[in-house]
């Protein structure tokens, strides 16, 4: 995924939509908590990118 200044907000929106679509079917399963922790880790990585952005 290439990050550029002009496409950064769209990239964040696409990433959030991907995360929502990925987590929605998995939340119905019995191992939802493990997937939620995975989503939290991914969100933490995304937040570190956001904080580093000038």
Strand and helix layout:
Layout: H1 8-26, H2 32-52
Helix pairs in contact: 1-2
How much helix is in the residues? Answer: over 70%
Main β sheet profile: none
Beginning-to-end CA distance, first to last residue: 18 Å
Query: Residue ranges: pLDDT <50 for 5 or more in a row?
Result: none
Account of the protein in words:
This is Genomic scaffold, ProqFM164S01. With 54 residues, this protein is mostly helical. The chain is 74% helix and 0% strand. It contains two helices and no strands. The chain has helices spanning 8-26, 32-52. Helix 1 (8-26) runs antiparallel to helix 2 (32-52).
Concise account of the structure shown:
Helix content is 74%, strand content 0%.
Offer a few descriptive terms:
Genomic scaffold, ProqFM164S01; mainly alpha; 54 residues; 2 helices
């Amino acid at each position: 995924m290439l990050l550029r200044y002009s496409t950064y907000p769209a990239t964040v929106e696409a990433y959030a939509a991907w995360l929502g679509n990925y987590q929605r079917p998995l939340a119905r399963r019995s191992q939802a908590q493990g997937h939620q922790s995975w989503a939290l880790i991914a969100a933490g990585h995304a937040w570190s990118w956001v904080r580093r952005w000038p």
